[in-house]
Structures are given as C-alpha cells and as structure tokens.
Amino acid sequence: MSALPVLLIAATFTWLLSLPLRNVSIVDSLRSLMLFAAGVIYGLGADPRAPRLAFVLWLLALWAARQSIHLTARGMGKGEDARYQAVRARHEPHFRWKSLYLVFWLQAVAVWIVSLPLLGVFASNAPLGILDYLGVLLWLTGFVFEAGLWRYTRFPNYFGSLCVWWGFWCMAASAGAWWSVLGPALLTWLVLAMWAANGRRNMPTTS
User: Fold this and answer.
1) Is residue 206 part of a domain?
2) Burial class (CB within 10 angstroms; exposed 0-12, middle 13-18, buried 19+) of 110
3) What is the reported pLDDT for 180?
4) 6 with 37: CB under 8 angstroms?
5) Burial level of 36, CB count in 10 A (0-12/13-18/19+)?
6) Contact 187, 161 (CB under 8 A)
7) How far apart are CA 110 and CA 138, in angstroms?
8) Residue 167 and residue 118 in contact, taking contact as beta carbons nearer than 8 Å
C-alpha cells in the first residue's frame, strides 16, 4: 500500500491550518509525523512475522516524537521561519494558495521518497544480519547527536537525521531492499543544500 495519498491528505489539512495562522513553518513539525505515518502504513501491509517490524517501528516512533516535539517547541510563538518568509516573498501574490503545492505537497512527496527504506525493511522475512546491527548503531548515533549535542555543534539535527535514515537504509538493505537508497540519498542532498544555504546566510558581508 502506498503511503503517498495519506501523506498528501495530511499535508492538505496542515495547509488549511496554516492559512489563519499565516505561518507555513508548521510543516516542519509535520514532517517527522508523516514519516511515522508512512512507516505505520507499510507495517500494516507487512507480514506480522517480519523480524524487523516491531523494533523498527519503535525506533521510528521515538525519533519522530522527539523531532516533532522539539521543532514545535522551538517555533512556538516565533511566527513564520525566515526560510519560509523568503519563499513567501518570492512567490507573492497569492502565496497562501501557492503554498499548498510549493510547500505542503512538495514536502509530502519528499517524505514519501525518504520513507522508502521503511517500505523495504518490512517487505522481507530475511533473518537479521550485520547490516541490521550497523543500522541500529547509526540510528543510535543520530538520535543521541540530535537530542544532546546542541551546545557542541551548530546543526546537530542535520547530521543526526542523516545517521538515523542511513541507519534505516542499512536495515532495509539487510532485508534485500537495496533500491531504497533513493530515500536517504534524497535526504542527504536536501540536508547539504540547507547546510550550504545556512552557511551563505551567516557569512560576513563586505561593503
């Protein structure tokens, strides 16, 4: 079962919520929840005897809950994030309507692609192997990095998310779903693009 229709519906409802708030930043809190929803959908369609089913869903739930709570708390009362204000300025007039497909539906499609390792990890009853243990180690590294190392590095969420999702891919690869590499590869590209954009915004200017 494809998760894409559910993700598009969730994105549309969140867009409707963003209209009176005049704040599309709320999509950031939705992203991890959509990834969890995708995992649940794939899990419901899997063989209940799949050896990775339960522990991957638990890992996904922990990561998604921490991400959503953190991003919601960070943005509470601060208005629309500067990144989205810039997008809004570039696409006026009528950005409130354009944001449905420029922000919310685009995020839903990106989440669907990133979630591919979850589809792959539940699609096989192959026994656990060394790649599964490597995947759990990567996931743990990413989770700890995101949750506890903000005082030591500037963007721990970027590196942490990459570790988490390459960890899920290792487990999917152990199940035979090598093709799901498209998910973490897209995430890596997006993270590097955001990191570069943040770096450019914070470079000192010369007169």
Assistant:
1) no
2) middle
3) 96
4) yes
5) buried
6) yes
7) 22
8) no
Positions of the chain with pLDDT under 50: 202-207
Q: How many domains does the chain have?
A: 1
**Residue 157 is assigned to a structural domain of this protein:** yes
Q: What pTM was computed for the model? A: 0.89
Domain extent, residue 113, equals: 4-201
CA dist 37 to 24, 26, 60, 152, Å? Answer: 20, 17, 10, 32
Residue 76, both tokens: 């509470």
- Residue 126, pLDDT score: 92
User: DSSP strand E in the chain: where?
Assistant: none
Phi-psi region of 50 (alpha: psi -120 to 50; beta: other; left: phi over 0): beta
Token duo for residue 161: 């998310």
Are the C-beta atoms of residues 168 and 121 closer than 8 Å to each other?
yes
How far apart CA 138 and CA 165 sit, in angstroms, is 8
Domain presence at residue 19: yes
Q: Residue type for 88, please?
A: R
Cis omega (within 30 of 0) on the bond before 117?
no
Within-domain flag for 207: no
Predicted local distance difference test score (pLDDT) of residue 15: 95
Contact 183, 114 (CB under 8 A): yes
